[in-house]
Amino acid sequence: MPTFRTIDDLEPGQRLLVRIDVNAPIEDAVVQDDRRFARHAETIAELLAEDHAIALLAHQGRPGKDTFVSLERHAELLADHLGHAVDFVADTCGEDALAAIDALEPGDVLLLENVRMCEGELPEADPEVKAETELVRTLAPEFDAYVGDAYSAAHRSHASIVGFPLVLDAYAGRVMEAEYTANTALQDRPFDGPVTLVLGGTKAEDTIPVVERLCDTVDRFCLGGVVGELFLRADGHDVGYDVEGTDLFDHQWDDHREAIERILESCGDRLVLPTDLAYDDDGERAETSLEGVTKERPFLDVGAETADRYADLVADSAAVFVKGALGVFEDDRFAHGTVTVLSAIADADCFSVVGGGDTAHSIELYDLEEEDFSRVSLAGGAYVRALTGEPLVGIEVLEHED
What fold characterizes domain 7-180? Predict the structure, then answer.
Protein backbone atom coordinates (compact mmCIF):
# COMPACT_ATOMS: atom_id res chain seq x y z
CA MET A 1 0.00 0.00 0.00
CA PRO A 2 1.21 3.55 -0.67
CA THR A 3 2.65 5.63 2.13
CA PHE A 4 1.59 8.98 0.69
CA ARG A 5 -1.02 11.17 2.33
CA THR A 6 -4.38 11.57 0.63
CA ILE A 7 -6.94 14.38 0.58
CA ASP A 8 -8.48 12.74 3.66
CA ASP A 9 -5.48 14.14 5.55
CA LEU A 10 -6.03 17.77 4.48
CA GLU A 11 -7.25 20.36 6.96
CA PRO A 12 -10.30 22.19 5.55
CA GLY A 13 -10.29 25.69 4.14
CA GLN A 14 -6.88 25.69 2.44
CA ARG A 15 -5.61 27.22 -0.79
CA LEU A 16 -4.73 24.24 -2.99
CA LEU A 17 -2.81 23.72 -6.22
CA VAL A 18 -4.26 20.59 -7.83
CA ARG A 19 -2.58 18.86 -10.79
CA ILE A 20 -5.11 16.98 -12.90
CA ASP A 21 -4.82 15.25 -16.29
CA VAL A 22 -7.55 16.15 -18.75
CA ASN A 23 -5.37 15.56 -21.80
CA ALA A 24 -7.76 14.29 -24.45
CA PRO A 25 -8.12 13.54 -28.17
CA ILE A 26 -8.91 16.80 -29.98
CA GLU A 27 -10.62 17.22 -33.36
CA ASP A 28 -11.43 20.67 -34.75
CA ALA A 29 -10.57 22.09 -31.30
CA VAL A 30 -13.26 19.91 -29.68
CA VAL A 31 -12.53 17.35 -26.95
CA GLN A 32 -13.54 13.87 -28.16
CA ASP A 33 -13.28 11.96 -24.86
CA ASP A 34 -14.26 13.52 -21.53
CA ARG A 35 -13.91 10.53 -19.20
CA ARG A 36 -10.89 12.01 -17.41
CA PHE A 37 -12.88 15.18 -16.76
CA ALA A 38 -15.58 13.17 -15.00
CA ARG A 39 -13.10 11.41 -12.74
CA HIS A 40 -11.20 14.51 -11.69
CA ALA A 41 -14.50 16.27 -11.04
CA GLU A 42 -15.06 13.78 -8.22
CA THR A 43 -11.79 14.80 -6.55
CA ILE A 44 -12.57 18.48 -6.99
CA ALA A 45 -16.11 18.06 -5.61
CA GLU A 46 -14.70 16.50 -2.44
CA LEU A 47 -12.28 19.38 -2.04
CA LEU A 48 -15.03 21.94 -2.54
CA ALA A 49 -17.06 20.26 0.18
CA GLU A 50 -14.19 21.08 2.56
CA ASP A 51 -14.19 24.81 1.65
CA HIS A 52 -10.88 24.77 -0.18
CA ALA A 53 -9.92 27.41 -2.75
CA ILE A 54 -8.65 25.51 -5.77
CA ALA A 55 -6.35 26.33 -8.67
CA LEU A 56 -5.91 23.59 -11.27
CA LEU A 57 -2.87 22.78 -13.39
CA ALA A 58 -3.29 20.58 -16.47
CA HIS A 59 -1.84 20.01 -19.92
CA GLN A 60 -3.17 19.33 -23.40
CA GLY A 61 -1.01 17.88 -26.16
CA ARG A 62 2.64 18.66 -26.78
CA PRO A 63 4.26 21.67 -28.45
CA GLY A 64 4.21 21.21 -32.22
CA LYS A 65 1.18 18.90 -32.22
CA ASP A 66 -2.32 19.77 -33.45
CA THR A 67 -3.66 18.83 -30.02
CA PHE A 68 -1.51 21.48 -28.29
CA VAL A 69 -4.28 23.98 -27.56
CA SER A 70 -5.55 26.31 -24.85
CA LEU A 71 -7.53 24.89 -21.94
CA GLU A 72 -10.31 27.48 -22.15
CA ARG A 73 -12.83 24.96 -23.49
CA HIS A 74 -11.56 22.38 -21.02
CA ALA A 75 -12.69 24.69 -18.22
CA GLU A 76 -16.20 24.75 -19.65
CA LEU A 77 -16.33 20.98 -19.98
CA LEU A 78 -14.96 20.44 -16.49
CA ALA A 79 -17.58 22.83 -15.11
CA ASP A 80 -20.30 20.75 -16.79
CA HIS A 81 -19.08 17.60 -15.04
CA LEU A 82 -18.57 19.36 -11.74
CA GLY A 83 -21.86 21.23 -11.72
CA HIS A 84 -19.90 24.23 -10.46
CA ALA A 85 -18.26 27.22 -12.10
CA VAL A 86 -14.67 26.77 -13.23
CA ASP A 87 -12.96 30.06 -14.03
CA PHE A 88 -10.17 30.19 -16.58
CA VAL A 89 -7.16 32.44 -16.96
CA ALA A 90 -5.08 32.42 -20.15
CA ASP A 91 -1.86 32.44 -18.16
CA THR A 92 0.03 29.89 -16.07
CA CYS A 93 2.52 31.68 -13.84
CA GLY A 94 2.57 35.29 -15.00
CA GLU A 95 0.93 38.40 -13.59
CA ASP A 96 -2.57 37.50 -14.79
CA ALA A 97 -2.36 34.05 -13.22
CA LEU A 98 -1.06 35.43 -9.93
CA ALA A 99 -3.84 38.02 -9.81
CA ALA A 100 -6.49 35.35 -10.44
CA ILE A 101 -4.97 33.11 -7.77
CA ASP A 102 -4.85 35.99 -5.28
CA ALA A 103 -8.59 36.57 -5.85
CA LEU A 104 -9.53 32.96 -5.03
CA GLU A 105 -12.03 32.49 -2.22
CA PRO A 106 -13.11 29.24 -0.51
CA GLY A 107 -15.35 27.37 -2.94
CA ASP A 108 -13.72 28.88 -6.05
CA VAL A 109 -12.18 26.78 -8.82
CA LEU A 110 -9.69 28.25 -11.28
CA LEU A 111 -8.09 26.46 -14.24
CA LEU A 112 -4.72 27.88 -15.27
CA GLU A 113 -3.58 27.83 -18.90
CA ASN A 114 -1.98 24.73 -20.46
CA VAL A 115 1.06 24.14 -18.24
CA ARG A 116 3.10 22.90 -21.19
CA MET A 117 2.98 26.45 -22.56
CA CYS A 118 5.06 27.47 -19.55
CA GLU A 119 8.84 27.38 -19.91
CA GLY A 120 10.35 24.82 -17.55
CA GLU A 121 7.51 22.31 -17.53
CA LEU A 122 9.23 20.24 -20.21
CA PRO A 123 11.51 18.30 -20.73
CA GLU A 124 11.96 15.64 -18.06
CA ALA A 125 14.58 16.18 -15.36
CA ASP A 126 15.22 15.19 -11.76
CA PRO A 127 12.60 16.46 -9.28
CA GLU A 128 15.21 18.66 -7.59
CA VAL A 129 15.84 20.39 -10.92
CA LYS A 130 12.14 20.83 -11.61
CA ALA A 131 11.60 22.30 -8.13
CA GLU A 132 13.87 25.19 -9.15
CA THR A 133 11.94 26.11 -12.29
CA GLU A 134 10.23 29.47 -12.57
CA LEU A 135 6.85 27.72 -12.65
CA VAL A 136 7.38 26.13 -9.23
CA ARG A 137 9.21 29.06 -7.62
CA THR A 138 6.49 31.48 -8.74
CA LEU A 139 3.37 29.49 -7.90
CA ALA A 140 4.35 27.52 -4.80
CA PRO A 141 4.32 30.51 -2.39
CA GLU A 142 0.69 31.19 -3.34
CA PHE A 143 -0.59 27.87 -1.94
CA ASP A 144 -0.87 25.94 1.31
CA ALA A 145 -0.59 22.50 -0.26
CA TYR A 146 -0.32 20.53 -3.51
CA VAL A 147 -2.66 17.73 -4.59
CA GLY A 148 -1.36 15.31 -7.22
CA ASP A 149 -4.24 13.71 -9.08
CA ALA A 150 -2.69 13.24 -12.54
CA TYR A 151 -1.96 9.53 -12.37
CA SER A 152 -1.86 9.20 -16.17
CA ALA A 153 1.17 11.51 -16.16
CA ALA A 154 2.78 10.08 -13.02
CA HIS A 155 5.58 8.49 -15.04
CA ARG A 156 6.64 11.92 -16.34
CA SER A 157 9.24 13.94 -14.43
CA HIS A 158 7.74 17.28 -15.39
CA ALA A 159 7.73 20.36 -13.19
CA SER A 160 4.01 20.32 -12.41
CA ILE A 161 4.21 16.63 -11.45
CA VAL A 162 7.43 16.38 -9.45
CA GLY A 163 8.53 19.94 -8.61
CA PHE A 164 5.78 21.14 -6.30
CA PRO A 165 5.80 18.14 -3.91
CA LEU A 166 9.38 19.03 -2.96
CA VAL A 167 8.43 22.52 -1.76
CA LEU A 168 4.81 22.11 -0.61
CA ASP A 169 2.93 19.66 1.59
CA ALA A 170 1.75 17.10 -0.95
CA TYR A 171 -1.28 14.81 -1.07
CA ALA A 172 -2.76 12.29 -3.49
CA GLY A 173 -6.16 13.00 -5.01
CA ARG A 174 -8.81 10.33 -5.48
CA VAL A 175 -7.79 9.45 -9.06
CA MET A 176 -4.16 9.08 -8.07
CA GLU A 177 -5.04 6.98 -5.03
CA ALA A 178 -7.50 4.66 -6.80
CA GLU A 179 -5.37 4.12 -9.91
CA TYR A 180 -2.22 3.40 -7.94
CA THR A 181 -3.93 0.94 -5.63
CA ALA A 182 -5.59 -0.99 -8.49
CA ASN A 183 -2.70 -0.98 -10.93
CA THR A 184 -0.09 -2.14 -8.43
CA ALA A 185 -2.28 -4.95 -7.12
CA LEU A 186 -0.36 -7.48 -9.19
CA GLN A 187 2.75 -6.56 -7.24
CA ASP A 188 1.25 -5.80 -3.84
CA ARG A 189 -1.39 -8.43 -3.10
CA PRO A 190 -1.68 -12.20 -3.28
CA PHE A 191 -4.44 -13.86 -5.31
CA ASP A 192 -6.01 -17.20 -4.44
CA GLY A 193 -6.05 -18.63 -7.94
CA PRO A 194 -4.68 -18.07 -11.45
CA VAL A 195 -3.66 -14.60 -12.63
CA THR A 196 -4.33 -13.85 -16.30
CA LEU A 197 -3.09 -11.00 -18.46
CA VAL A 198 -4.94 -10.21 -21.70
CA LEU A 199 -2.57 -8.30 -23.96
CA GLY A 200 -3.22 -6.86 -27.40
CA GLY A 201 -3.06 -3.54 -29.18
CA THR A 202 -0.76 -2.37 -31.94
CA LYS A 203 2.48 -1.54 -30.10
CA ALA A 204 4.79 -4.43 -29.33
CA GLU A 205 7.04 -2.18 -27.24
CA ASP A 206 4.16 -1.69 -24.78
CA THR A 207 3.48 -5.40 -24.42
CA ILE A 208 6.72 -7.33 -24.73
CA PRO A 209 8.30 -5.87 -21.57
CA VAL A 210 5.15 -6.78 -19.63
CA VAL A 211 5.40 -10.43 -20.68
CA GLU A 212 9.13 -10.60 -20.08
CA ARG A 213 9.06 -9.05 -16.62
CA LEU A 214 5.98 -10.89 -15.40
CA CYS A 215 6.68 -14.36 -16.78
CA ASP A 216 7.30 -15.74 -13.28
CA THR A 217 4.35 -13.88 -11.72
CA VAL A 218 1.48 -14.37 -14.15
CA ASP A 219 -0.03 -17.79 -14.87
CA ARG A 220 -1.10 -17.13 -18.46
CA PHE A 221 -0.88 -14.42 -21.08
CA CYS A 222 -3.73 -14.33 -23.62
CA LEU A 223 -2.35 -12.53 -26.67
CA GLY A 224 -4.09 -10.82 -29.56
CA GLY A 225 -3.77 -7.82 -31.83
CA VAL A 226 -0.45 -7.06 -33.49
CA VAL A 227 1.57 -8.57 -30.66
CA GLY A 228 -0.39 -11.82 -30.91
CA GLU A 229 0.45 -12.11 -34.59
CA LEU A 230 4.11 -11.40 -33.94
CA PHE A 231 4.28 -14.23 -31.42
CA LEU A 232 2.46 -16.50 -33.87
CA ARG A 233 5.08 -15.64 -36.46
CA ALA A 234 7.83 -16.61 -34.01
CA ASP A 235 5.94 -19.84 -33.37
CA GLY A 236 6.17 -20.81 -37.03
CA HIS A 237 2.88 -19.55 -38.48
CA ASP A 238 2.76 -17.63 -41.77
CA VAL A 239 1.28 -14.49 -40.20
CA GLY A 240 2.64 -11.45 -38.38
CA TYR A 241 4.03 -9.61 -41.38
CA ASP A 242 2.79 -6.69 -43.45
CA VAL A 243 0.60 -7.12 -46.51
CA GLU A 244 -0.65 -4.41 -48.84
CA GLY A 245 -2.22 -1.62 -46.81
CA THR A 246 -0.43 -2.31 -43.49
CA ASP A 247 2.82 -1.13 -41.95
CA LEU A 248 2.48 -2.43 -38.39
CA PHE A 249 4.34 -5.71 -38.42
CA ASP A 250 7.65 -5.89 -40.26
CA HIS A 251 9.44 -3.03 -38.48
CA GLN A 252 8.21 -4.24 -35.09
CA TRP A 253 9.35 -7.76 -35.91
CA ASP A 254 12.80 -6.45 -36.80
CA ASP A 255 12.93 -4.40 -33.58
CA HIS A 256 11.64 -7.10 -31.21
CA ARG A 257 12.32 -10.45 -32.84
CA GLU A 258 15.05 -11.46 -30.40
CA ALA A 259 12.92 -10.62 -27.36
CA ILE A 260 9.87 -12.41 -28.78
CA GLU A 261 11.84 -15.55 -29.54
CA ARG A 262 13.49 -15.41 -26.12
CA ILE A 263 10.12 -15.11 -24.37
CA LEU A 264 8.63 -17.91 -26.44
CA GLU A 265 11.47 -20.19 -25.40
CA SER A 266 11.63 -19.20 -21.72
CA CYS A 267 7.94 -18.96 -20.84
CA GLY A 268 6.08 -20.38 -23.83
CA ASP A 269 4.07 -22.61 -21.51
CA ARG A 270 2.38 -19.49 -20.12
CA LEU A 271 1.57 -17.94 -23.50
CA VAL A 272 -1.88 -18.57 -24.94
CA LEU A 273 -1.91 -17.71 -28.64
CA PRO A 274 -4.81 -17.39 -31.08
CA THR A 275 -5.87 -20.48 -32.98
CA ASP A 276 -8.05 -18.59 -35.46
CA LEU A 277 -8.21 -15.07 -36.83
CA ALA A 278 -10.83 -12.87 -38.48
CA TYR A 279 -10.58 -10.75 -41.62
CA ASP A 280 -12.67 -8.62 -43.99
CA ASP A 281 -14.18 -10.60 -46.88
CA ASP A 282 -16.00 -8.19 -49.20
CA GLY A 283 -17.40 -6.22 -46.29
CA GLU A 284 -18.28 -9.22 -44.13
CA ARG A 285 -16.42 -10.77 -41.21
CA ALA A 286 -14.79 -14.07 -42.09
CA GLU A 287 -12.59 -16.36 -40.01
CA THR A 288 -9.84 -18.83 -40.68
CA SER A 289 -8.03 -21.44 -38.66
CA LEU A 290 -4.29 -20.90 -38.38
CA GLU A 291 -3.58 -24.42 -39.56
CA GLY A 292 -1.90 -24.08 -42.96
CA VAL A 293 -2.95 -20.44 -43.38
CA THR A 294 -0.93 -17.96 -45.45
CA LYS A 295 -1.49 -14.29 -44.74
CA GLU A 296 -2.88 -12.57 -47.83
CA ARG A 297 -4.89 -9.77 -46.21
CA PRO A 298 -4.93 -7.99 -42.83
CA PHE A 299 -6.26 -9.91 -39.84
CA LEU A 300 -8.48 -7.64 -37.76
CA ASP A 301 -9.56 -9.73 -34.76
CA VAL A 302 -9.05 -13.04 -33.06
CA GLY A 303 -11.53 -15.69 -34.14
CA ALA A 304 -14.56 -16.90 -32.21
CA GLU A 305 -12.81 -20.08 -31.07
CA THR A 306 -9.95 -18.06 -29.60
CA ALA A 307 -12.32 -15.57 -27.98
CA ASP A 308 -14.27 -18.38 -26.31
CA ARG A 309 -11.07 -20.04 -25.10
CA TYR A 310 -9.82 -16.77 -23.61
CA ALA A 311 -13.22 -16.18 -21.99
CA ASP A 312 -13.04 -19.61 -20.33
CA LEU A 313 -9.59 -18.81 -18.93
CA VAL A 314 -10.82 -15.48 -17.60
CA ALA A 315 -13.77 -17.17 -15.88
CA ASP A 316 -11.31 -19.46 -14.10
CA SER A 317 -9.06 -16.62 -12.89
CA ALA A 318 -8.68 -14.95 -9.52
CA ALA A 319 -7.36 -11.80 -11.17
CA VAL A 320 -7.35 -10.45 -14.72
CA PHE A 321 -5.44 -7.47 -16.09
CA VAL A 322 -6.07 -6.16 -19.61
CA LYS A 323 -3.81 -3.97 -21.75
CA GLY A 324 -4.73 -3.48 -25.38
CA ALA A 325 -7.62 -4.67 -27.52
CA LEU A 326 -7.67 -8.05 -29.27
CA GLY A 327 -8.94 -6.58 -32.52
CA VAL A 328 -10.12 -3.45 -34.32
CA PHE A 329 -13.05 -3.01 -31.96
CA GLU A 330 -14.00 0.40 -33.39
CA ASP A 331 -15.48 -1.60 -36.28
CA ASP A 332 -18.24 -3.69 -34.74
CA ARG A 333 -17.52 -6.53 -37.19
CA PHE A 334 -14.16 -6.99 -35.47
CA ALA A 335 -15.09 -6.24 -31.88
CA HIS A 336 -16.11 -9.82 -31.10
CA GLY A 337 -12.85 -10.91 -29.49
CA THR A 338 -12.43 -7.83 -27.32
CA VAL A 339 -16.08 -7.66 -26.26
CA THR A 340 -16.37 -11.41 -25.58
CA VAL A 341 -13.37 -11.36 -23.25
CA LEU A 342 -14.37 -8.12 -21.53
CA SER A 343 -17.90 -9.48 -20.99
CA ALA A 344 -16.44 -12.64 -19.47
CA ILE A 345 -14.33 -10.53 -17.12
CA ALA A 346 -17.36 -8.47 -16.14
CA ASP A 347 -19.29 -11.65 -15.30
CA ALA A 348 -16.42 -13.34 -13.47
CA ASP A 349 -15.93 -13.32 -9.73
CA CYS A 350 -12.40 -11.94 -9.91
CA PHE A 351 -10.30 -8.85 -9.33
CA SER A 352 -10.03 -7.06 -12.67
CA VAL A 353 -8.30 -4.04 -14.13
CA VAL A 354 -8.79 -2.87 -17.72
CA GLY A 355 -6.09 -0.38 -18.69
CA GLY A 356 -5.28 1.95 -21.53
CA GLY A 357 -7.52 4.63 -22.97
CA ASP A 358 -8.41 2.77 -26.18
CA THR A 359 -9.31 -0.47 -24.43
CA ALA A 360 -11.28 1.38 -21.78
CA HIS A 361 -13.17 3.11 -24.59
CA SER A 362 -14.46 -0.26 -25.80
CA ILE A 363 -16.32 -0.67 -22.49
CA GLU A 364 -18.22 2.53 -23.14
CA LEU A 365 -18.69 1.83 -26.84
CA TYR A 366 -20.31 -1.58 -26.31
CA ASP A 367 -22.49 -0.65 -23.31
CA LEU A 368 -20.55 -2.59 -20.69
CA GLU A 369 -20.62 -1.22 -17.16
CA GLU A 370 -17.48 0.14 -15.53
CA GLU A 371 -18.87 -0.98 -12.17
CA ASP A 372 -18.47 -4.61 -13.26
CA PHE A 373 -14.68 -4.21 -13.21
CA SER A 374 -12.52 -3.52 -10.17
CA ARG A 375 -10.94 -0.62 -12.06
CA VAL A 376 -11.07 0.82 -15.55
CA SER A 377 -7.80 2.71 -15.87
CA LEU A 378 -7.47 5.52 -18.39
CA ALA A 379 -3.70 5.56 -18.01
CA GLY A 380 -1.32 4.21 -20.62
CA GLY A 381 2.37 4.35 -19.83
CA ALA A 382 1.80 4.69 -16.10
CA TYR A 383 -0.44 1.62 -16.13
CA VAL A 384 2.16 -0.51 -17.90
CA ARG A 385 4.89 0.60 -15.50
CA ALA A 386 2.75 -0.12 -12.47
CA LEU A 387 1.89 -3.59 -13.78
CA THR A 388 5.54 -4.48 -14.08
CA GLY A 389 6.53 -2.98 -10.75
CA GLU A 390 8.52 -0.06 -12.15
CA PRO A 391 8.51 3.04 -9.94
CA LEU A 392 6.46 6.08 -10.92
CA VAL A 393 8.26 9.32 -10.18
CA GLY A 394 4.95 11.15 -9.63
CA ILE A 395 4.16 8.68 -6.85
CA GLU A 396 7.64 8.72 -5.35
CA VAL A 397 7.59 12.48 -4.83
CA LEU A 398 4.28 12.28 -2.98
CA GLU A 399 6.05 9.98 -0.54
CA HIS A 400 8.79 12.57 -0.06
CA GLU A 401 9.18 13.39 3.64
CA ASP A 402 10.86 16.80 3.53
Answer: Rossmann fold (3.40.50)
